[in-house]
Specification:
single chain, alpha+beta, two-stranded antiparallel sheet, 3 helices
Length: about 140
Amino acid sequence: MAFTVNLTGTAQVSDIARAAWDKAFILESTQAQIMDAFATKKVVAGAESISFSRYGKIAVDTTPLVETEDVDSASIDPTKVTFLVKEYGKAVTTTELASLVTGGEVDVAAVRLVADHMGRTLDALALAALLVRILANVTDDSGPS
């Protein structure tokens, strides 16, 4: 594959190089990942929005169970939650001369710097969303959530 000065998309990068860079980004960006403690990521390629169901809490019981009686059944009611997909990030520019002079170190540094930025950005966005939730002190029928 010939060297391309202006990359406009992933089609100009080999599958092997793309896979290697993807793995490097994941490894480099997972140092903090505050979001992982509070949410499970769902990856949907090419999605403009992601929807899932959220289920309400079951009311707290205050009466003990009796062995000879059947347990009361509670219904679970789903609520559809939709997230709009947004992109955040930065890119860096390296030159062929810088790559040759540093023996490729600048390319590795570029991956590390962009991945670190990605991890810190995800953490900042997750913290902001968490703070909104905490400060709003949201409650529903079954108490604080």
